[in-house]
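Case study 2.
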Amino acid sequence: MTIWGIIQLFLKAFLIGNLIMVVFAMMTWIERRLLSFFQYRLGPNRVGPFGLLQPIADLLKLIRKENFAPRQVSQVLHLAAPIFTLFCALAVFAVIPFGQEDWNLFGWHTPPFMAADLNVAVLFALAMNGLGGYGVIVGGWASNSKYALLGALRACAQLISYEITLTLAMLPVLMMTSSLSMTDIASGHLGWSMGSWHPWFIVWAPLGFGLFLLAALAEANRAPFDHAEAEQELVGGFHTEYGGLRYAAFANAEYLHLLAISGIGVTFFLGGTSVPGLDDPAGVMLGGLSMAPLIALGSFLVKMAFFIFLFIWIRATLPRLRYDRLMRFGWKAMLPLATLQVLVTATIVSQGWGKG
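Prediction:
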C-alpha cells in the first residue's frame, strides 16, 4: 500500500469514527425524547434548545465523576473490560459500507466510504460483535460483586443462545450472494429479480429479517432482552460497580453496538445504499456535481434510523421477559425457525429460483 493509500485509510477511519460518535451522542437525546413521547412525558428540555445539549451535559458530568473501583477487584480487568468492549463495538464499523463503491466528490476519486473493504468482512463483523460480549462478562466477573456476577452470567448465556440465531438469520443472504464481502452483499440483491424488479433481501428472506431483528435485540442487550443489567433485579447488572468514564465507556459501547447491528441489518436486508426507483444516482446532478455520494450516505442513514426507531419503540412498548422464558424462546422457537429458513433458502438457491 502506498503512503497516499495509508493516509486515505486513516482519514476515512477518523471521519467514520467521529461521525459515529456524533450519531451516538444524538442517539441518547433522540431515544430519551422518543421514550418521553411514547410515555406522555416531556423528556430532556432544559439544557439548550429542545434539550439538544443534554448529551454534552451528561458527558461533562461523567468526566467530573470519580472513576472508583471497589476493594478486592481485579484492577487490570476492571479497567480493561469497558475499553475492550468499546473497541470491539467501534471495530465493526470498519467493514460497514456507508457509501457507493466509487465516489467522485468535487473531482476527488475515492475508494468505498468504509475503512476496510475485506473479502471476509462478514466474519470480521461477527467476530467483533461476539468478542464485545466478553468485555461485559469479564467486567462483571472482575467487579467482585454478586449483582455484577449475576449480570455477567446472564450476558454469557444470552450471548451463546442468540449469537447462533443471529448468524443463521444472516446465512440465507450469504447463500444468495455467495460472498462474505459487505460491498458484494449490499449490491447482491441486483442479481435476484422478480421480472424487472430487484427487491431487497428482506423480500426474499422475511423470516430471516424477523429473526435477525429479535436476535439483534438480545445481542445489543436491549429491552425486552436486557437481563444483563436488569435494574429492578440486579441494580445495574454487570456495570453496577462502574462509575465515571468507565461507566460511560460501557454505555457508549452499548449504543455503538446498536448502531453497528443496525448497519449490518441495512446492508443485509435493506439494500445498503440503494434507493428504490433510482437505478443510477450518478445521474443526479446539482451545480455540475454528482449527488450520488450524498444520496448513498443519506439512504444508508435513513435506513439505519428505521432500525433504531424500531428498537426504541420495542423498548417503550414491551415489558422484560422472564429469564427462563428468554432462554426457552431462543432455543425452542427462534433456533428451529432459523434452521428451517436456512434449509428453505438452500433449496431455492440450488434450484436457481429468482436468480436473474
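Residues 3-38 form the longest helix (36 residues).
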